[in-house]
Amino acid sequence: MARMKFLCDAERCIECNGCVTACKNEHEVPWGVNRRRVVTMGDGEVGNEKSISVACMHCTDAPCQAVCPVDCFYTTDDGIVLHDKDLCIGCGYCFYACPFGAPQYPKQSAFGARGKMDKCTFCAGGPADDLSEAEYEKYGRNRIAEGKLPLCAEMCSTKALIAGDGDMVSDIYRERITKRGGRPSNWGWDTAYK
Amino acid sequence: MKLRKKIGSANQAVPNQGIGLFGQAVNRRTFLRHSGVTAGGAALATIAAPAMVSKVRAAETSPKADIDTEIKLSVCTHCSVGCGVVAEVQNGVWTGQEPDYDSPINLGAHCAKGASVREHGHGEKRVKYPMKLEGGKWKKVSWDEAINDIGDQMLEIREESGPDSVYWLGSAKFNNEQSYMFRKFAAMWGTNNVDHQARICHSTTVAGVANTWGYGAMTNSYNDMHNSKCMFFIGSNAAEAHPVAMQHILRAKENGSKLIVCDPRYTRTAAHADQFLRLRPGSDVPLIWGMLWHIFENGWEDKEFIQQRVYGMDEIRTEVAKWNPAEVERVSGAPEAEVKLAAQTMAESKPGTIVWCMGGTQHTIGNNNTRAYCVLQLALGNMGVSGGGANIFRGHDNVQGATDFCILSHSLPGYYGLSAGAWKHWSSVWDVDYEWMKTRFDAGSYEEAGGKPVTAMNTKGMPVSRWIDGVLEDRGNIAQKDNIRAMVLWGHAPNSQTRGPEMKEAMEKLDLMVIIDPYPTHSAVLSNRKDGVYILPATTQFETYGSVTASNRSLQWREKVIEPLFESKPDHVIMYKLAKKLGFADEFTKKITVNGEEPLIEDITREFNGGMWTIGYTGQSPERLKAHKEHRNTFNTTTLMAEGGPLDGEYYGLPWPCWGTADMKHPGTPLLYDTSKSVAKGGLNFRARFGVERNGENLLAEGSYSVGAEIEDGYPEFTHESLKSLGWWDDLTDDEKAAAEGKNWKTDKSGGIQRVAIKHGCAPFGNAKARAVVWTFPDPVPVHREPLYTNRRDLVADYPTYEDRKSHYRLPTRYGSIQAEDHSEDFPLIHTSGRLVEYEGGGDESRSNPWLAELQQDMFVEINPADANNVGVEDEQMVWVESPEGGKIKVKAMITPRVGRGVVFTPFHFAGHSEGEDLLDKYPEGTAPYVRGEPANNAFTYGYDSVTQMQESKVTLCKIYAA
After folding, report:
1. Residue of B nearest to A113 (CA)
2. Which of A3, A5, A14 best tests the B interface by mutation, with the highest count of B CBs <10 A?
3. What's CA B76's distance to the chain center, in Å?
4. Residue A113's pLDDT band (boundaries 50, 70, 90)?
5. Using N-to-C axis directions, what is the helix angle for B203-213 and B366-379, rounded to 10°?
6. E strands along B226-312, which residues?
7. Do the chains contact at A2 and B22, CB–CB below 8 Å?
8. How far apart are the first and last CA of chain B?
9. CA of A180 to nearest chain B CA: how many angstroms apart?
10. Which residues contact B152 (CB under 8 A, 6 or more apart)?
11. Who among B2, B16, B246 is closest to A157 (CB)?
12. What whole-number distance in Å separates Cα of residue B93 and Cα of residue B396?
């Protein structure tokens, strides 16, 4: 089975936000919830500016899953970390645990200011029936079930963001690094994938 | 030890089993496409409490599992890269957007704007029906009532003041067919007061470049940059303005190309550069001449290329000699070592390409800048080669096409100009009587050429950059019968133009204002008018179809994705409705089928195919363009040539010039002036456009010609006479002979002259040298001149601007009288402007798209920390930015070293505020964009290019103080 991974190539990311918008478009994610973001470090500083696109990294040993008090997380056979919104209580514990700031909370009444947690699904939907309306409403489109990959990576303007089977992702990236003769800067991998 | 506490059998972390589905060898392009992985995980179908789940927005636009999905192919409507869009449509609703991996241009990629185009199918903030402003309130009216009212008022103005008092401002958002029809529409209304955004984006490029080597367009392509060994960017921030181009640029960089970025700001593009060179805004000529100084000093120029293919380089040398490193640093701020390094990199890493955009063009000396860039490339011998060229990135999706069809006040389609010959040519293409065309115009004469009066029909109209002066200037000072009294803003964002406060005044003085657009735009809210404004809802390009020209001159065919939303209509339908009301519909569509009120797009394409000989828009028939769309996966992504398949050997989108008729099957010209291929296979040489001799010096190429040319030297353009004297006349068929008699390669409507020239390996337009000196321009050799508003008073005496001009495009144009006034003390900061990736142009469309608007919610000004400290301003504090002309904007301060000391930057996409006030209440109900802000151009000032009337929106002065 494939082990799904994201990789953002900081040498290529230009902070165009194509990935962010592709995600919004694909899942009609409401204003205020950002399953994916582009983070720029050293913004405007000559020689120091680097951008990177970040979402849920679908960690091998996911801290969100470890701390969830209602066990709403599960890992699919492809290594995608998903959660069940019917079980989620919107406590925000996963947000504390996540090293990437991936969990998002819609600002809808329920418990205080926080609704059910929402995060990147690797375009794999959720526990509802594949491709059902219920799944779309809660988790967005299930591209994996349609035989496609996450739209953010598929649409990335410079092919900086790569998603898919870890081996394939590594191959593409390794080829680039070799060509560049530079140091790899595959940000996030050491933290997320073990 | 794992952190995770639960491990169920179904959820077990699966060890990586290696190749799996991705095992077979696939290249990167097919990698993402063919991935097939089904989701695992338990299916727990329960019902969620609705309030707690972030439910998707509009259920009607979400994909449904049980409905058939149709795929429609279109092209992104934002920038000029030309990214393919794959739309999924269910029951006429645009429910999904997929990457277009088959497009050789974007290979599936999109930036934020491209990834958001499905929102056009929602159109929540669109204008939904025709409206009229009555007593300060927007009132819904029917299409018929609107067209009738507008038409009656226009005809009345025509009666009283002549046709020149109605201004037709068109759009780079039109497709080619609509652009062509729009220019024709203005012609048949009887005015040259017609223009569009190209005037304020790349007009100085088109003029500068066309006058240097023949054609005013990007010479190579984004894809061809893969072959570059050095990429030199000046005044271009591709990472934000052309993000998908960066895919090709970074690919080149990974192939070993150097990337040099010159800009006043450390841009997102500069962040990827090998060398970043900061220059003072408006000092492009000194910087380029500074580089050339090192090139000449070290003998790095390509002497053979110059000898064979360039005229006037010696005059350049004389000017360049003045730009020693010390002077370059004094004027541009770029230190010697940096300038030399850039020059050396360019000289040693060939082929090298140059890329420029608005940073170079939007100046009073924009035409000097663009020609200086050209000269640099000519000196290095980088022209006409793969990996080299002048890669001028255009702005809007179809600004290249709209320029080619000349929605421009100084020319008819195809750059034929406004001479009697040009009018006769187009009258014959339109199948209307030239004498009738003449009657449409004001018969008066207000300008002279060569001591003789010229009629309005042959006089350049007012440019879009100056329409406000056409309204406000004293009637006695303008070279036409009366002022502009009615303004048609068709697909135009007024906030993209400088002098906002005066524009407001002009709008208030008009008799009639008509806005035709999918969105109300800033025009609807800027003025304090209470009456006399109409808004007609136009569709986007996803609700119609036709061809669009990308920056690399490739034409792509768009399919209609969805039917027009609400009551909106495609632009060409609205043109037809108006033509009918104004009484020239029959002439307007004489050779075009009209279905109901819709002129048939394919017929329009065929009609312009029959007239656009100058730049080779003749071979791209609708059938060929549709075939290119269908087989776009067969094109090589670097060369853009089809390899095998039904289009073997053709170039993607038949980049113009695609010579002769469609039957000739010319493959298109991927690289302009590339002599390594025969003309029949897309090769070319510099155009013979400026005569054959000057001051005894030969202007034709010497010993350089495209492969296979039977004339192995320079030669002038082809005419019926030259065919006869060469003995090639009998290669024409009898029909061609009849049509070609007395004609040349531009006016022979059979295409025979072109066909025969190409048969003998020759370029129809001749084979000449490029000219480094444009003797017809105010500054034949490009020189530096200080901006009108400059705080470097020490430089004004050495590099003064021009003298004021009495009539330039019908209007008095000021230079010296403005520069004479010293504002440097009260307005110490240089103000420049540019783009953000999330928004396009004036931004009304993109700020109305929630997916984009969320990403960029505030208008801001970038200020260097030192300047911020000088005026005591903190990050995110509201500040006033005020210009010496009194315009001011209230914006958020962003304190960043991105801008150098003494320079501030604002993005120009915002509108909907005025001097700190939100104009929300003035928008028609439900149409206000999500994000509104101060238009940067309210704080930009007077200043126009000496050749094209390009506005100066890259350098002015300002002061900043806390709000």
Report:
1. B52
2. A14
3. 14
4. low
5. 40
6. 230-234, 258-262, 275-277, 310-311
7. yes
8. 57
9. 6
10. none
11. B246
12. 26
Q: Do B58 and A60 touch (CB under 8 A)?
A: no
Percent of chain B exceeding pLDDT 90 equals 92
Does residue A146 belong to the interface with chain B, where contact is any CB pair within 8 Å?
no
Domain ranges of chain B: 145-192+411-619, 203-392, 803-962
| pLDDT given for residue A115 in this prediction | 80
Within a 10 A sphere around the Cβ of A66, how many other Cβ atoms? 17
Residue B885 tokens read as: 């002309």
Of A46, A127, A132, the CB nearest to B276: A46
Q: What is the pLDDT of residue B18?
A: 34
Domain B145-192+411-619 architecture: 3-Layer(aba) Sandwich (3.40)
Cβ distance of B268 and A15 shorter than 8 Å:
yes
Chain B contact for A142 (CB, 8 A cutoff): yes
- H-helix or E-strand containing B548? strand B546-549
Check CB contact of A180 with chain B, cutoff 8 Å: yes
- Of the listed ranges A100-109, B473-482, B569-578, B663-672, the one predicted with least confidence: A100-109
Nearest-Cα distance to chain B for A135, in Å, is 9
Q: How far apart are CA B890 and CA B859, in angstroms?
A: 9
Size (chain B), residues? 963
| CA torsion through residues B782, B213, B184, B546, sign | negative
Size of the A and B interface in Cβ pairs below 8 Å? 282
pLDDT at A184 over 80: no
The answer, for A90 touching chain B at a CB cutoff of 8 Å, is yes
Q: Which CATH number fits domain A4-192: 3.30.70.20, 3.40.50.300, 3.40.50.1390, 3.40.50.720?
A: 3.30.70.20
The SS3 assignment for B294 reads: helix
Q: Which fold has domain B203-392?
A: Dimethylsulfoxide Reductase; domain 2 (3.40.228)
Tens of pLDDT, residue by residue over B620-642, are: 999 999 999 999 999 999 999 99
The mean pLDDT value of chain B amounts to 93
Is A127 in contact with B276 (Cβ distance < 8 A)? no
B16 pLDDT band (50/70/90 cuts)?
Answer: very low
pLDDT at residue B172 in the model: 97
The chain B residue lying nearest A114, using CA atoms, is B52
**CATH top class, domain B803-962:** mainly beta
In the stretch 270-289 of chain B, residues with CB closer than 8 A to chain A read 270-272, 276
Q: Minimal Cα distance from B894: which residue of A?
A: A44
Among A26, A157, A167, beta carbon nearest to B16 = A167
Strand, helix or coil for residue B515: strand
Query: Does residue B35 belong to the interface with chain A, where contact is any CB pair within 8 Å?
Result: yes
Do B194 and B170 touch, CB atoms closer than 8 A? yes
Q: Strand, helix or coil at B831?
A: strand
Give the type of residue at B267. T
Kindly list the residues from chain A whose CB atom is less than 8 angstroms away from the CB atom of residue B6: 65, 71
Query: Which residue, chain included where needed, has tokens 């990959």?
Result: A149
Three-class secondary structure of residue B771 per DSSP: strand
